[in-house]
Automatic annotation (TrEMBL):
It comes from Herpetosiphon geysericola. Residues 203-419 form the PPM-type phosphatase domain. One of its GO terms (molecular function) is phosphatase activity. This is PPM-type phosphatase domain-containing protein. The chain crosses the membrane at residues 38-62, 68-89, 109-131, 137-160. The lineage of its organism: Bacteria, Bacillati, Chloroflexota, Chloroflexia, Herpetosiphonales. PANTHER family: STAGE II SPORULATION PROTEIN E, STAGE II SPORULATION PROTEIN E-RELATED. Pfam families: SpoIIE. The keyword Membrane applies.
Amino acid sequence: MPYNATNNFATLKLNWPEELMQAARTSYPYTPMPFRRLLHWSMLLSTVLGFIILIPVATSGVKLENVLLTFGSSYSIGIAAPSLVFFLLRWTLPIAQRRNWSPIRAWSLAVFIGGLIASIIYAVIFGMFFIPAPERLNFIIFWTILGALLSASTTALFYTAERILNDLEKGRQALRKNAALSEELRLARMIQAGLLPDQAPEINGLAIAGGCFPAHEVGGDLLSYDLTADGRLCISVGDVTGKSVSAAMLMGITLGVLQSEIYDHAEPAAVLSELDRWLRTKRQTNNFVALQVALFNPQTSSMLLANAGQLAPLRRRQQTVEFLEIQGSLPLGMGPQMPHVQETISLQSGDLLVFYTDGVVEAQNANGEMWGFENLLDLVKTNPSKHPQELLQAILTAIRSYSHTIQPHDDITLVVVVVQ
């Protein structure tokens, strides 16, 4: 039966040491030493102490009376000390329970008081029989102070043990929380991976490679390939403000609304306008979406492009690489509401297009320097490959080589399209 605030001396059973041990086991990760074992070690130490005290006495001759008194005083304190401690625990443990202390603190208080009383008893007994009367008071004071210091040192050890156990418990709780959080993030990444396309679609006249690469477990970049009813392909590349779980949640919702709007509207500008209106109705005051929607028509070799705060894509035509700068707008949900426009981009066989988010050009090295647009332009211009997957891997390899051991701080989304 563990102790509670209503326990008192009258209601304690005779087997209270076992109850105290059980209370300590269930209340705190610390098991006190059983009474018999404590008494055994106390008697052993008392024997050692008796021999140590007997050494200076033996210099003047060993007498049976001195030996009996020496070991008698040692054994008396060896019995008194654990008995006092366990008696005091009947008072300190209920106090610890009421004040929400750990049993270790109750033990430390009992050991301090019990050890101090036991040292006084020892000093008095030994002083009365072995110390001359003129030196007796000083001897008793000396051993009382020494006993207080030893008891205080023991109490300090108890408190140190309590702090260590508290730190260990906090560490265990932190590990459990981290394990639970890691599992939740793993599931979130699985869900997000299910929302994003795992491979590019196959469509006549276009060769496509792309993917999203989160900087952490989950990210805020979005990528979508959507085929319209008349056979055109819509590629959407976007970036949601924020990091980790909050950005991933908004990304998932935005992706669902985006795909719905693409199904309802064939024009990229209309898709951006509807998505902007939806974000404003949800009052996402601190969250914005930079989004670019490109609608490819292989039959007319053209592309309708609308941009809301996203980086301009690259086009490589023969040996020339240029940004496809069009009239754009602020990210969706930011600033005053404004109309979104789209422009028609003519395409030729062999044209290579690169769509990307800011995680590509903002990748940093150990000195904090960004990879930048110039490196991206040079790589796209000098890389001879006409296969989109090869160029995609070349860009990712160059970014990893530049960053080296630096972990990416932003998500990377990259799409390479080759017009055939």
